[in-house]
Amino acid sequence: MRSYEMVKYEVVDRIATLTLNRPKLLNAFNVPMMHELIDAFDRIDADDEVRAVVVTGEGRGFCAGADLSGGTSAFVVENGSGAAPDYSSDKARDGGGRLTLRIFECLKPVIGAINGPAVGIGATMSLPMDVRLCSDSARFGFVFARRGIVPEAASSYFLPRLVGISRALQWCCSGRVFGAEEALQGGLVQAVYPAAELLPAAYAMAREMTEHSSPVSVALTRQMMWRGLGMDHPMQAHRIDSRGVLARSASGDAAEGVNSFLEKRPAQFPDKVSEDMPDFFPWWEEVQYR
Q1: Number of CB atoms found within 10 A of residue 165's CB
Q2: Could you give the CA distance from residue 178 to residue 182 in angstroms, rounded to a whole number?
Q3: List of domains in the chain
Q4: Less crowded by CB within 10 Å, the N or C end of the chain?
Q5: Which pLDDT tens digit goes with each residue over 188-211?
């Protein structure tokens, strides 16, 4: 099993905690951190004992953005060589986007516990998380235009869907840093807590979202909701919903869900995310909907 240097990985009570672990640099993001986080999400999806994920930062910051000590090389995994950039090369992809796409694909609920400054990739990496909570000392900044670049980490997809196009443009074009209350009012975070209450609130939410639910149903629901944001007609959602209901109604989980309800007892769902996803999953890889 891979060991990590930039990230702490811990599982307690079926909740995985990923802690960004460069506190002297306010957990500044670099390529090794990207690789470790992606590996950690692979590990989480493969572990049926993990039901949810909480992401936070060590020390007084969540993530102060890309580590700029190496100059503009911080913005991509590899710059490549040559006079002109090769936009078609896999090396041209930004590192933040590699991470946010992996979070987007996760099969477990992901909760951001943003405990301090979250700037640049520190802000955008949180966007594909299902819920963002923050401390009252948190500060956010989509500062890319002030660094001469543009929003990254697929944030041009995620941010307008979360907060609306006008607020997304206001924050990104100005590049200004703003506080927790503005983040709350703008819909970027769901709640603000004193620092000591942040992680307990995140763990309570993780339990609420998973404790009494089928893991396979949660995995399917998460992907249905996120991928539904890109659908252009409700018929697409209807087709996926129908497949899900048809496949899951014949599952051991559905039988247990009904029986536990009738018998007035907690459910013990038998199906596993690692083994029992329905045969139509992943539906988005089809050339077209049948």
Answers
A1: 10
A2: 7
A3: 7-210 (3.90.226.10), 215-285 (1.10.12.10)
A4: N
A5: 999 999 999 999 999 999 999 999
